[in-house]
Amino acid sequence: MPNNKLEKIVSLCKRRGFIFPGSEIYGGIGGFYDFGPLGAELKFNIKQAWWRDVVQMRDDVVGLNAAIIMNPKAWEASGHVSGFADMLVECSKCHIRYKADDMPDKCPECGNKLDNAKARSFNIMFKTFVGPAEDTASVAYLRPETAGGIFVNFKNVIDTMRVKVPFGIAQIGKTFRNEINPKDFIFRTREFEQMELEYFVEPDDSGRAFDEWVGLREKWYEQLGLKNIRKHEQSKEERAHYSKATIDIEYEFPFGWKEIEGIANRGDFDLKSHSEYSGQDLSYTDKESGEKYLPHVIEPSAGVDRIMLAFLCDAYTEEEDRVVLKLHPRLAPYKAAVFPLLKNKPELVSKAHEVYSLLAKNYSLGPIAWDDRGNIGKRYYSQDEIGTMHCITIDYQTLEDGTVTVRDRDTMKQERVLAKELTNILKEKVG
Ligand code: ATP
Fold first, then answer.
1. Can you say how many angstroms the Cα of residue 68 is from the centroid of all Cα atoms in its chain?
2. What is the β-pairing status of strands 316-319 and 296-303?
3. pLDDT score for 2
4. What's residue 3's pLDDT?
5. Who contacts 286 (Cβ-Cβ below 8 Å, separation ≥6)?
6. Percent of the chain residues topping a pLDDT of 70
């Protein structure tokens, strides 16, 4: 992969409204990004695909939407207050800080030699204060992962829903980490979104469930067309002390193979610890056998922003005379764009508006683009660059026989179809 591929993607994302530097008019803020109109759609489509496949299509998984700020005791129980830290090394000359496990020998800013022996621990949770008094009693944290909200609601869910082990609780939401070195565009940021599932199983069943979820998650990426992925099994030294096994799914970014999702067998660490700290009994009673136990947990944990970058890198294709984002139909921000052949011919424009409304009304197709600038060639170029699946042109023949041309993004082939059949044709193509 050429080294400048990432730069090209960053530039396309800015130019075409996918991703902007956070608070750009004030000079930006390190580690934060804003998602533009097309980025918001792409992110929404990734989350929707995950929610559909992991929650809605399964009868053993329910969803949850917990608060970002939780009682700080929850983060004591999870070990984040005492141990969610990275080792930090500060350049003694220019005082720039580096993450010790990802640090160059010399400071890239001033050339000074960096000394790993001087690394110190730095907790990466963001602190805030709840209420008007800024004292230690009012300290709270922005959640550093979404899983915590799931564990503290475990009892609420089993008391209110007819769930039976094995079952899962899933959540998508914002997560905050005060990363020492945010870098590689949206790969490592300080505010991002996670999609996490906690799947509760009988202790003896955890090995089987772990293997099953590793397989399912790998297949999910493959089904969405992501190439260049591999699994990496973490060694005992790499994984958390409570984890019995962890497998990362990695993607080959232009800057190397990196984790996009981790699947961990967490044993009963979380429920046990929250039971101890909260004083609440978080065990589960099997209604049939009467057996009472703490379920073990399998956790697939993925970052929406990182996955989005992987899909963008994978989809970015340079062809002879065009750049095309070959995003999977489920992910493409626009499934279709509608063009009147000429913008100064009212009869073509009004017919094109009719076709546009017909498609836009259809919920499952998502937003539809409208383009009447320049010539058709330029419009194709512009839609290819943002991954629009189909371009539909309304011309004089449309006024005569009701047909339109549909041009496919990947094959660039055009076919004439009846406008009134477009919705069904597109739904079939998009899947
Ligand atoms: P890393 O080692 O890269 O910091 P991690 O192992 O700490 O990641 P987890 O705590 O397992 O990450 O989080 C699960 C997922 O959340 C990761 O696979 C990744 O997709 C995403 N994620 C974690 N940290 C960040 C971040 N700073 N920016 C964007 N996404 C992140």
1. 17
2. unpaired
3. 45
4. 57
5. 165, 292, 293
6. 99
The CATH code that applies to domain 5-78+145-314 is 3.30.930.10
Instruction: Write the pLDDT tens digit of every residue in 223-264.
Output: 999 999 999 999 999 898 889 999 999 999 999 999 999 999
Mutational test site, ligand 1, from 188, 193, 214, 242, max ligand atoms within 8 Å of CB: 188
Average pLDDT, the chain: 95
Domains 5-78+145-314 and 334-430 share a fold: no
Alpha-carbon span 391 to 417, nearest angstrom: 12
114 lines ligand 1 (CB under 6 A): no
**Residue whose token pair is 């999702």:** 261
User: Is the pLDDT confidence value at 53 over 90?
Assistant: yes
- Ligand 1 contact via 184 beta carbon (within 6 Å): no
Calculate how far, in angstroms, residue 172's C-alpha sits from the geometric centre of ligand 1. Answer: 14
| Alpha carbon nearest to ligand 1 atom 16, residue | 303
Ligand 1 mean position, distance from CA 194 (Å): 9
**CA-to-CA distance for 213 and 198, rounded, in angstroms?**
11
Å from CA of 145 to ligand 1 middle: 9
Q: Which residue matches tokens 């299509």?
A: 57
Report the amino acid identity of residue 218: E
Class in CATH terms, 334-430: alpha beta
Q: Which atom of ligand 1 is nearest to the CA of 264?
A: 11
Among candidates 167, 81, 67, 162, which has minimal Cα distance to 121? Answer: 81
The residue nearest atom 6 of ligand 1, judged by CA position, is 262
CA 303–ligand 1 middle distance (angstroms): 6
Q: Are 360 and 369 in contact (CB under 8 A)?
A: no
300 lines ligand 1 (CB under 6 A): no
Residue 390 Cβ < 6 Å to ligand 1: no
pLDDT of 289-307, one tens digit each?
999 999 999 999 999 999 9
Task: Evaluate whether 385 touches 323 at the Cβ level (below 8 Å).
Answer: yes
pTM above 0.85, yes or no: yes
* Domain ranges across the chain: 5-78+145-314, 334-430
* Residue 306 beta carbon below 6 angstroms from any ligand 1 atom: yes
Residue 414, pLDDT score: 97
